Amino acid sequence: MQYINIANEGVKSLSPYQAGKPIEELERELGISNIIKLASNENPFGLPESAKQAISQQLNDLTRYPDANGFELKAAISRKFGVNPNQITLGNGSNDLLELIAHTFANETDEIIYSQYAFIVYPLVTKAINAVAREIPAKNWGHDLDGFLNAINDKTKLIYIANPNNPTGNFLGEAEIDAFLAKVPESVIVVLDEAYTEFTAESERVDSFKLLQKYSNLVICRTLSKAYGLAGLRIGYAVSNPEIADLFNRVRQPFNCNSLALAAAVAVMQDDDFVAKVAENNRLEMARYEQFCQQQGLEFIPSKGNFITIDFKRPAAPIYEALLREGVIVRPIAGYGMPNHLRISIGLPSENDRLFGALLKVLG
Ligand SMILES: *Cc1c(COP(=O)(O)O)cnc(C)c1O
Question: In the structure, which protein residues have their CB atom closer than 6 angstroms to any atom of ligand 1?
């Protein structure tokens, strides 16, 4: 029996998600320690103290189910951003939400629009539900929103936009997004995935909550995995109009967010100092990466996220492998159709120094 033959049609075209290589795996392979990982856009500062405290207080309650409605976290998000708790949906990471949105609105005959080189979860979700993928060719590695508009038809149900985009770092300003939303029919759900928004300078950041007041079909997705440092706990949130949030809450698994994640998230949502420190490190270190690339004649895609994507103008796999032997894990993105690029997460100054040294050695 070949079970793939009886799998859902869309599943047959999927391959498993390629995550960044775990540090422990490389340690086992090479038998070396002091490995650094700049591969998964994680927070280089580690778990904030505020989250540690919240988690240790929560430990005694782990025999109980979590609060299915995430009351405290919704209240914290509501206070911070001036949105109503009934607009919020919590997810087991924002990947959970990206999938939930597709399950809520799209089925086999529907079309889902996203960009070439956009976050890989969009095609993954689209294929898993066997919907029709409309992948729009990228413009300078980023979203071609005119191309998106041209692709909209009666069957279009969903549009995914990552801003800043992963793995390229491309960014769309508020005016562009506003003008785009004004032209999208109300019946098409637009998902604005802002996993990296905290790394964009405040003066440039899109005020997406303001856009939400204008566009009833907008769904904003955010995560605590990046700037907030909770990637291992899995927690994210969506903000939409209340009617859409109600639909999500019908479809989601009742206890999709665990107690430790909820407690830690409440704490870090109020930990503005931690997020400010993270963003400032990113700003300063991103400038060093850009300068390094310029000095070495390496072409990069300007990024508003916490990572930088370098074009080596030749297959990057051997460079990736050689960096592994130096104890530095970065992220190959051939799976995105970018075999000449590597994506490097911005680390602490000392980690970035390691990367610069290793890259110089590897490139000879
Ligand atoms: C990292 C990332 C996410 C967040 O994933 P989580 O499931 O919240 O950890 C969402 N969208 C994009 C574009 C990302 O890069």
Answer: 41, 93-95, 119, 162, 166, 193, 195, 223, 225-226, 231, 236
